[in-house]
What we know:
Layout (H helix, E strand, L loop, with lengths): L1 E5 L8 H19 L2 H11 L3 H5 L1 H8 L5 H5 L7 H22 L1 H22 L11 H14 L4 E8 L2 E8 H18 L11 H14 L13
Antiparallel strand pairs: 1-2, 2-3
Amino acid sequence: MIPLRDANPAERPPLMTGALIVANLAAFVYQLSLGPGEQQPMLFRFGLVPAKLTEPDWAAAVAGTASVLPFLTSMFLHGGIMHLVGNMWFMWIFADNVEDRMGSFRFLAFYLLCGLSASAAHLALNLHSRIPTIGASGAIAGVLGAYFLMYPKARVLTLVPLGFFTRLIELPAFVVLGMWIVLQTVYGLMSATGPHAVGVAFWAHIGGFLAGMLLYRLFLRGRTRGRA
């Protein structure tokens, strides 16, 4: 299922959501500006590489001393145009309402904390991985977790594949996002050798989603209950 838009207009312009999208686009343009020989070292330096924290000798050999900086910088890097577009699409559909209820700066703190939680979940389950993990999807998963609880009945126009055909169907958000997190969990469990084996950090998605569900109330502005 591919969500196309939600019927849940925000009351205020999503300024921080827009700023985060621009920041991700700017980081991707910077990635593209690097020569072929510079891109991989940059990903090892600014992407989250668990082995840099668990294997000091290897970390020193590839990128110097380990640092906590990649927990932050990895959220703004992407592996390709489709990776970027997919993440920003979900961000644009669902983040405006969450920001609307939190306020811009509370939302930024929430977003970053969900991203850090997602990275921590990936690290915990892939302690010796030497593959850089990048992307905003862990932080965005936190936004989805918050939306899932705040607006469960919001209608989401969704492209649903049915064999050789597709249909546009309006579904409640709890169905669309519930199916998304169920699939992430199934794929995570099926990845016997870890999320990186198929190029997707499923456990980062799960960690971010759970963090969003657990933390969103701490960042709400004013009212404590979401609208359907």
